[in-house]
Design brief:
188 residues; alpha+beta; Aminopeptidase; binds coenzyme A
């Protein structure tokens, strides 16, 4: 997919040095991406902040900007840091050589323009990901846009877990099925 040529979208690296500068914008983007719209869930604002802070203390990523406005981000870390991944069942996936894409979000007004595709392709191409041979993501089984995106990128389903989440409307717990998907970044 090509980006709309009229839109000057730029991609910048995100690390624990520049994270404080963009922290508030990333929190807002995260909050709007996951707590609004068709695939919304209730997430405690404090939980968003601490989750992002925790991931960025050891992780890295990329941010997309439309001029000076943050419109998308991908944040990842080594899979060994994901406490929910069923490592015992996937001995072929090396926890410290596999990139875990923990968060991917695009502002609602900028979706469908290739922003997410661009962020992930950037992630796989650039040097930060070089120690990694594989990539894994976890996605809600009802999140059609995300599932379609990952399939388009060559990810395949390898496992499923269930997590208790809080619904946006009724603020009630519900079981969310999460699919783990995998693809090779570098062929051995
Ligand atoms: C999922 C998300 C990141 C996609 O971002 P995006 O920038 O709109 O995606 P792109 O424009 O790069 O789309 C690339 C491909 O993804 C798929 N896709 C994206 N949006 C889609 C939709 N609404 N319906 C079906 N497929 C979709 C398509 O295959 C698309 O390729 P195509 O346009 O050639 O058909 C975005 O919808 C989002 O931020 N959602 C909320 C947060 C979220 O769910 N994150 C993922 C958590 S695992």
């Amino acid at each position: 997919m090509t980006l709309d040529n009229m839109t000057p979208i730029t991609i910048f690296g995100l690390d624990n040095v520049n994270y404080p500068k963009y922290r508030n914008e990333l929190i807002d983007l995260y909050s709007l991406s996951f707590t609004e719209g068709r695939y919304a869930q209730h997430i405690d604002p404090q939980a968003i902040e601490s989750s992002l802070d925790d991931i960025m203390s050891i992780g890295f990523g990329f941010m997309s900007f439309d001029k000076d406005t943050l419109i998308g981000a991908v944040i990842c870390l080594a899979l060994k840091n994901d406490p929910d991944f069923p490592f015992d069942l996937h001995k072929d996936i090396q926890p410290d050589k596999t990139l875990y894409i923990a968060d991917l979000m695009v502002d609602q007004n900028h979706r469908g323009k290739g922003v997410a595709l661009g962020l992930i392709e950037h992630l796989f191409e650039l040097s930060n990901s070089k120690p990694y041979t594989d990539a894994v993501i976890r996605v809600w089984n009802e999140n059609i846009p995300a599932l379609s995106l990952y399939k388009k990128l060559g990810f395949v389903e390898i496992d499923m877990i269930s997590q208790t989440k809080i619904s946006k409307e009724k603020k009630e717990p519900f079981e969310m099925k999460k699919i783990y998907m995998h693809r090779k970044i570098i062929e051995n």
